[in-house]
Amino acid sequence: MRERSSSPLGAQNHDRSIKSTGVEEDWRLANVIVLRDLDHASSRVQIQVLELIRTRRAFSHKAVHAAPKHFIVIVLKSSMGLPLHSFLNDHLFLSHYHDPNDGYANLEEGSDWIEDDRASMNSVVHRTARAADFRFAGILLGHVDLLRLAGLRQKVSISAEVEEYMHNVVTFLRLHRAVSGGVTPRATKAMGLLVKCLASLHGLDFVAPSLVALAARKIYYHRLEMVSAPNERSMQYGSDPGAVAALLQVFVPESVVEEVIGRVEAPL
């Protein structure tokens, strides 16, 4: 029977190869993975990201690398960019849109370039070091804090009226004439989980209707798929194609969600 090559000579050769390169490869996955411009990647790359989210494993030519216990994937993309793979998009838990008009205060403060008007203002107004330290002071959540928030989430209750309100919001989104898809069972499940998480973050043991509206914005902004004019349902009954196309131009996922939230009556 052949023995495994675990002799000291093999170990010496391995050490020699490491010393020759000077760098030892570390294939451990980080707790936070930030992916920028993923919409420009090929479908094969997006499917690999989907497998990483679903199975929490990354495959390489040499081995299979498992993700840590606390693991999150953040995708950064432009609102005017290409759509992601539909299955990958559905597995992204929530989304947040940052308006460029709001600025990038933290980046501008730490960068070397300053606009002319800000430069003239800074020549008169000087910030103290203490104020700068307070501005960039981060809020750290440790392992104990995460366990505590998870425990609080399990104690959050949802009344029958709020459950009905959530169901109506999902139904109105699914039946909206400008929506062709995106209101999936996974999205509905994610919405039910997010409202409980938001309640625990706000120090509540119940779900308020305002949290349902906030969760709908975070869950469906990136999931909703807009219908094209030829596939709009009223075209089956002889609607004018030009009028339908003009009507659908005003609809985007954000406006559809806001319209539904405004139309569905919230419980008192």
Overview of the molecule:
By secondary structure, this protein is mainly alpha-helical. It contains twelve helices and six strands. It has a two-stranded parallel sheet with strand order 1-4. β2 and β3 form a beta hairpin. α9 crosses α10. It is globular and about 60 Å long.
Write the layout of secondary structure elements.
Blueprint lengths: L7 H14 L10 E5 L6 H13 L1 E3 L4 E3 L5 E5 L9 H6 L13 H6 L5 H7 L6 H7 L7 H12 L5 H16 L3 E3 L3 H17 L7 H12 L4 E2 L14 H8 L4 H11 L5
Parallel strand pairs: 1-4
Antiparallel strand pairs: 2-3, 5-6
Helix pairs in contact: 7-9, 9-10, 10-12
Q: Helical percent range? A: 40-55%
Distance between the termini: 77 Å
Strand order of the largest sheet: 1-4
Shape: globular
| Arithmetic mean pLDDT | 80
Strand content range:
5-15%
Give a short summary of the structure.
The chain is mostly helical.
Observed structural traits:
single chain, two-stranded antiparallel ribbon, 268 residues, mainly alpha
